[in-house]
Amino acid sequence: MSDLIDELDARILELIQEDASLSVADLAERVGLSPSPCWRRIKRLEDLGVIRKRVTVLDSEKLGLGFEVYISVKLALPSRANLEAFEARLENWPEVVSCQTVTGHEDYMLRVMTRDMHAYDDFLRDKLLASDLVSGVESRIIMRSVRQTTAVPISLVVDMTKTEAPKTAAGK
């Protein structure tokens, strides 16, 4: 994929990860393009699936959802049918903001957000542990978030330290 993305694409991706509300005109100006070519690049990145969607990041604390927990989940029997059934149940649990299948003793790692410890206990008892699919959980309560980003490290895909001098009529 990195051969499909050049430095201009990478700069556009960095900028829209930082602020998805930037207009095409603002993006174009910041990367040194006119709006039409900038828009075409964005459209191409969307068509490639590099840009999946644009979202607004909310402050969960200010919304009263400051209690965050990472939960390791072990299924009773990790068969294909049980994995699919568990994943389907997650769709109805708004507290689960992220779910990954993982290697090791556990089958899943969940990131859960609730109002407080009591709301988390309700989620744990009434939803997660009430599921006949789950044989065990281990919770890790987040005390303080040190670093959190939704940004993908574009600089690891494209070497943005290379700067190619613009070609002039004399330098061709």
UniProtKB/TrEMBL annotation:
GO terms for biological process: regulation of DNA-templated transcription; response to amino acid. One of its GO terms (molecular function) is sequence-specific DNA binding. Keywords: DNA-binding, Transcription, Transcription regulation. Pfam families: AsnC_trans_reg, HTH_24. Coiled coil: none annotated. One of its GO terms (cellular component) is cytosol. This is Lrp/AsnC family transcriptional regulator. It comes from Asticcacaulis taihuensis.
